[in-house]
Design brief:
Helices cover about 75% and strands about 0% of the residues. The longest helix has about 35 residues. Strands 1-2 form a two-stranded antiparallel sheet. By secondary structure, it is an all-alpha fold. The protein contains 18 helices and two strands. This is ABC transporter permease.
Length: about 500
């Protein structure tokens, strides 16, 4: 009997070994990342760029070695660090984003995008895989140039914190450019549109490369200690990082929405990202205001920047396609504004405008009162009226006609820029033709540029603001009537789209 027990115990099945950490991470990893990294490493572009970059860094190192022997202890680290960073910057800020753009654009041109959707990954996971795969390739380039950048530290003239600061800001700029390039690949559907996007992207990537190199040179020249001692510089860097983070997220969600099906709730992601961006920005500003206690004049830049972001981003949200939302009376809950449709998009942006207007007014009264606060108060109150007016006007002009061509999202967005340009250029010209000054208040009452400047100006001869409360009420009346008419026009088109 003991032999039988022993035999049975010997034939008992063993427990299967648990998979290791790398195997579990590999199972959870986006399969598109592995595919794109393998394909990218095998490409000719990768090896040519990688080889030329290493060759350039090696030649620079030989030059640095030769000059250091001749010049002795003369500091040369800053110059050679910038030279190494140029080699890395050409790859990181031009080749990597452009390759990411071409990868997704090729999928759409060759009509292989449908095959990717059939894998069940979904647009968001596919785009995330595209972005992460090219960031992995960027990491390979950075790991190759890293020793050369560290070598510049031993040449004197640049400290290690400065090197880390430049590389950290450069990494943030790389992520933003890669996300923006992937998003640009989703903009056009026709061949002519893709060619135009291609040319514009090449120009913008070239400008972004120049901007990154100039910023790296200035940061390396000033040094870490000189820059971090300046509060304005820290605020500016934090503001730029926040813009790159939030707008990178917004661009990613917008690209995923453009690649989604029309039957899906494609607008939820971008609108939610847009709302959270403005909400978190407002909370950060309130925190900074309570700590720093700034003056009333500091409210105007915050107000103008906020309304510019709201209007330029909001015109893309409010010019959605008609008929994509459910019937207007079917769901009146507040969160239904995140669903598709031009009406819901317009009302969503108007709510954000009112939120930002209330925030700026609260910041104004929380600030230290200085001279000319009456004129600044008028400017703070009139800024949301200009934003509401020029958000509603192109929607009203584009959606009133019966023609669906003029009401298309692309033409409405073009009409927005045309109307803003005409409103800024024609009133000063008419004022000059009638023998008045170019900044005459009555002629420029609805001018979003000169009008806002007039409301913030102070007439010292009369010891009163240049503009009056009656003019402020007139601008608000025109803005509210235009917004109401645009809302009614959008409602009518939505009903007609549902009825057809």
């Amino acid at each position: 009997m003991s032999a039988t027990v022993t035999e049975t115990a010997g034939t008992a099945p063993r427990e299967e070994a648990r998979p290791g950490l790398l195997e579990r991470l590999g199972d959870r990893l986006n399969p598109l990342v592995v595919k794109e990294v393998r394909q990218g490493i095998r490409s000719r572009v990768f090896w040519v760029s990688f080889g030329l970059m290493l060759l350039a860094c090696f030649v620079l190192s030989m030059v640095a070695y030769a000059t250091s022997r001749d010049s002795g202890l003369k500091p040369q680290g800053h110059g050679f660090f910038f030279a190494y960073f140029v080699c890395l910057g050409v790859v990181h800020f031009f080749i990597i984003p452009y390759s990411a753009y071409r990868s997704l654009a090729r999928e759409r041109e060759d009509e292989t995008w449908v095959l990717l959707l059939l894998t069940g990954l979904g647009p968001r996971r596919i785009l995330r895989g595209k972005v992460f795969s090219f960031l992995v390739q960027a990491g390979l380039y950075a790991s190759a140039v890293g020793p050369f950048l560290l070598f510049s530290y031993y040449l004197n003239g640049i400290d290690l914190p400065t090197i880390l600061m430049v590389l950290g800001l450069g990494a943030s700029w790389l992520v933003f450019l890669t996300v923006a390039a992937v998003g640009a690949a989703t903009l056009a559907d026709t061949r002519m549109g893709r060619a135009l996007v291609h040319l514009v992207l090449l120009g913008l990537l070239g400008l972004s490369l120049v901007y990154a190199l100039v910023a790296a040179y200035v940061l390396g020249e000033q040094g870490y200690r000189a820059l971090t001692s300046d509060d304005d510089f820290i605020t500016f860097v934090g503001f730029c990082l926040w813009l790159m983070l939030t707008y990178g997220w917004l661009l990613f969600e917008t690209a995923a929405a453009r690649l989604s099906l029309s039957t899906e709730n494609y607008s939820r992601g971008p609108r939610l990202a847009f709302a959270l961006q403005m909400l978190l920005t407002g909370l950060i500003l309130v925190g900074m205001w309570t700590v720093n206690d700034p003056s009333t004049k500091d409210v105007m830049p915050v107000s103008i920047l906020g309304f510019l972001c709201l209007v330029f981003t909001g015109i893309f949200v409010a010019s959605d396609v008609d008929g994509q939302a459910r019937a207007l009376r079917a769901d009146t809950r507040p969160w239904s504004l995140l669903r598709p449709g031009a009406v819901r998009g317009f009302r969503f942006v108007v709510l954000l405008l009112l939120f930002w207007a209330g925030l700026c007014i609260a910041l104004f009264f929380l600030s230290n009162t200085r001279h000319n606060s009456d004129a600044l108060r008028l400017a703070v109150f009139v800024a949301p009226a200009y934003a509401l007016l020029y958000l509603s006007l192109p929607l009203l002009v584009g959606r009133l006609p019966r023609s669906d061509r003029l009401a298309s999202p692309a033409l409405v967005r073009v009409l927005f820029f045309v109307l803003v340009g005409l409103a800024g250029a024609l009133p000063p010209l008419l004022a000059v033709l009638f023998g008045q000054k170019a900044d005459e208040p009555l002629f420029n009452l609805l001018n979003p540029f000169i009008g806002l400047d007039n409301f913030s100006d102070y007439d010292y001869s009369t010891d009163e603001p240049k503009m009056t409360l009656g003019m402020l009420a007139c601008v608000w009346l025109v803005a509210v009537l235009t917004a109401f008419a645009a809302d009614r026009a959008l409602v009518e088109r939505e009903r007609r789209a549902h009825a057809s």
